Amino acid sequence: MKKFIQTIKDIWSIDELKTKILLTLGLMAVYRFMAQVTLPGIDPQQLTVLGDKTSDGLLGLLSAFTGGAFSRASIMALGIMPYISASIVVQLMGIAVPYLQKLQKDGESGRNKINQITRWLTIGITIVQGGAYLTSLPSLGIPAEAYLLGQGGMFWISSMILLTAGTVFAMWLGERITEKGIGNGISLLIMIGIIARFPAAFMQEFTSKYAAGSGGFMMILLEIIVWLLIILASILLVTAVRKIAVQYARRTVVGSIDDAQGARQYIPLKLNSAGVMPIIFAQAIMFVPGLIARNSDGTVQTIFNALSDFNGWGYNILFCVLIIVFSYFYTAITIPTNKMAEDLKKSGGFIPGVRPGVETSEKLDSILSKITLPGSIFLALLAVFPAIVVHFGVQQNWAMFYGGTSLIIMVGVAIDTIQQINSYLLNRHYDGLMKTGTKRRGTI
Questions:
Q1: Which of 55, 88, 104, 343 would you call most buried, defined as having the most Cβ atoms within 10 angstroms of its Cβ?
Q2: What pLDDT, on the 0 to 100 scale, is given for residue 440?
Q3: CB 163 within 8 A of CB 66
Q4: Are residues 259 and 174 part of one domain?
Q5: pLDDT at res. 291
Q6: Which domain holds residue 291?
Q7: How many angstroms separate the CA atoms of 379 and 193, rounded?
Q8: By the 8 A CB rule, do 63 and 57 touch?
């Protein structure tokens, strides 16, 4: 504990790092404050039913990503999700659209243009999703008397403007955090929204265990132990890599031998190269059975109702299959093994026993395919684990923290942020957060 406290003191002794952390915390606080502001014209006292209907299932997940703003009919109800959707669309279009491919190769100017395209697409997606959200509010339980000024054109126009402005503002906050704060701003906004629900979810579980007389303290303790083990498994999944040994030929530089080029190095291939994207893609597809069930009847409705049950076996088996499929798909489009092989060849490197060029590309692709299978299965199991613990009596809101998108996002963002803080500490000759907290000797 003393070493940890010393590390915290070292962090606050670096003025630049302290400023970045305070700025990040301040912008996240602004985001959380804005998430509490209800759309004008809606009585916040009438939103109890909306909160109940969006407390679990897929709507519960959307509410979690927005920190509960979705279930409060807030001006930040759509949160940062339209920006995430736009980023995914632009990334996928970059595979097939030559113009975007050219921009990707244009360096900083190309990235700026891609960011601008993403922002405009975000506004378009927000308008579509905002209209769908406002249309669905009555069906989600908001009574007619909750609309203080009616549901006419003025309410729609003002609400659409505010929902769009809320998403654009969230996007701006995320970009400012990334640029001037610490960590990835967009991911931090999602994480802070998820964490915002943690205290209420835990207290609900704590109360239910004591009120029902179903184990009390011992059951809570067991659940916490299992939760910590799942966090450990998530960390292993996020950080696990397969190291591919690479040898660089020695080269003569200014009459001498460049020993650094003769050293053995590694290409790290992640066990889960796709991150959380397969779960997001799979969940988007899993909205379809529910839509089909609402517009059908008889046997078809029964089948698709089963496939839209968040805690049902049919839903989770199909969910697992889709995650595995999308893991391969997203890994294939984001890890260019042919470009890696070409860059390795240009730099004079090679994998021992493998010819540079095409054979190296095939070797990397083969290894990546083999490690993606256990990685995708592990990811799928983590994704459906919340549904598993629900069958053992865990409350739905608390079960959300036992895996799935929420936990993997929190673990990934936490690791990324800690690594950035560590880089500042190590540059100033301090040990990082994951090591002892003493100063290192030496001068800068």
A1: 55
A2: 44
A3: no
A4: no
A5: 67
A6: 214-402
A7: 22
A8: no
Q: Which two tokens stand for residue 190?
A: 């999602």
Q: What is the pLDDT of residue 260?
A: 45
23-27, 193-197, 231-235, 440-444: range with lowest mean pLDDT: 440-444
Instruction: Give the helix, strand, coil percentages of the chain, each rounded to 5.
Output: 70, 5, 20
Task: Specify the pTM.
Answer: 0.77
Question: Contacts by 388-395 with C-beta closer than 8 Å and gap 24+?
Answer: 389/223, 389/226, 390/311, 391/311, 393/214, 394/205, 394/223, 395/201, 395/204, 395/205, 395/208
Structure token digits, residue 210: 């004591």
CA–CA separation, 330 and 353 (whole Å): 29
Domain contains 442: no
Rg (CA), the chain: 25
For residue 80, report the phi and psi dihedrals to the nearest 5 degrees.
Answer: -100, 0
Q: Which of 398, 377, 266, 275 is nearest to 321 (CA)?
A: 377
Neighbours of 50 (CB within 10 A): 22
Give 431's pLDDT tier (boundaries 50, 70, 90). Answer: low
Whether residues 43 and 187 share a domain: the answer is yes
Q: Where are the alpha helices (DSSP H) in 181-250?
A: 185-196, 198-211, 217-239
Q: Kindly state the average pLDDT of the residues 90-118.
A: 83
Q: Is residue 410 part of a domain?
A: no
**CA nearest 194: which of 80, 303, 65, 299?**
65
User: Which phi and psi (to 5°) does residue 276 adopt?
Assistant: -95, -5
Check whether residue 283 and residue 387 sit in a common domain.
Answer: yes
Sheet containing 349-350: give its strands across: 264-270, 241-248, 349-350
User: Structurally, how many domains does the chain consist of?
Assistant: 2
Residue 56 — pLDDT band, cuts 50, 70, 90? Answer: low
**Res 334: pLDDT:** 79
CB 281 within 8 A of CB 324: no
- Please say which residue of 131, 161, 196 terminates a domain: 196
The enclosing domain of 315 has a CATH number of 1.10.3370.10
